[in-house]
Design goal:
4 helices; alpha/beta; two-stranded parallel sheet; 142 residues
Length: 142
Amino acid sequence: MPSPGVALARLGFPTIGLFDGDNPGPGHQTTLEIIELGERLGFDSAWVRDRHPQYGISSPVAVLAAASQRTRRIELGTAVIPLGWENPLRLAEDLGTVDVLSGGRLNPGVSVGCSRIRPDCGGECGTAARARPRRAGPASTA
């Protein structure tokens, strides 16, 4: 946050999308329209949130691919993609493709944990949790 009296250098906004579980199409269209409006209003960036497995943006990369074709200037970001739900190669390819389609405007955000909505994962899930290094116990002095 800048000091009082100092203008913000950049300003972005998040959107989680609002969806009807029986008809998600209008929710996706509204999300894209919000991003377009943000660009027209002069915002510097728009951020979409991953909503696995809730109603909302279940594939932020696909939504940002669509947004990249409807906008020209605004930066597009993910806030955040939990890696435990994703295939890392597929995600890297998809993010790279959207970055190319957007002309370099993609700002991907990722996390290594998972949502607390899956009680069986204890806050960690998928390959990200299994691949995370663990601290070794104290060395034996025997």
